[in-house]
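re: ur question from yesterday

yeah so i grabbed the chain u mentioned. its 234 aa long if i counted rite. heres the sequnce exactly as i have it in my notes:
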Amino acid sequence: MTSPMIKQKALFCWSGGKDSAYCLHKVLTEAHFEVSYLLTTMNNDFKGISMHGVSEELLDRQAESTGIPLIKVRVDGGTNREYEEQMGKAFLKAKSEGINHVIFGDIFLEDLRIYRENQLAALEMEAVFPLWEMDTKVLVSEFIALGFKTVLCCTNDKYLGIEWAGRLIDQSFLSELPPHVDPCGENGEYHSFCYDGPVFKKKLEIKTGQRVLKELTKSTITGRYWFCDLTAKN
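ran it thru and got these structure tokens back, copy pasting raw so excuse formatting
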């Protein structure tokens, strides 16, 4: 009789966007890891998910719908050192509970992968990248085919203007996307908020509101970004 495979505990870095949702689905389906917690970085300046601008209320509802406990790491967004310190504390707390793997939804940014691996190696933990080097056009097409629903909550004005903020990611979106924009926004062209799909117990009812242009001049983030206000319908 074959012994059941023992799953290793993992912490899942959760942005609330489409890559996170697709990555979580892949991890849960392949069943190599037991996802003990979702971990999200909250930016005190944005009063929500870092760079996404999504409110804490929506994040809470989203995480609750996955059925996986959520850990929030709060930063002011001023320095990378602060981010590393707060994340390091969260990683060490997870490690104290027997969690030695941290899962990320990164796809092809090599410098970011090396940064994450080095950060965790210093804590004797391991980074896992289930989506690494996937074709981003194939990935987003599979995401849509699986029944996920997501909306653009933030766009980099250098690539996508106000008309894209708040837009649903579907086949029309893919067909109209400018050729210089990565289909998954992997270069920071856009960020998204996922509100329905196979990783959720129920669909989140949301509505889009005002679009606001913000000039960001932090040391780690610069540029002009359109943020679409997202709220729960009930």
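noticed a couple things. The radius of gyration is 17 Å. also The first strand starts at residue 8 and ends at 13.
anyway ttyl
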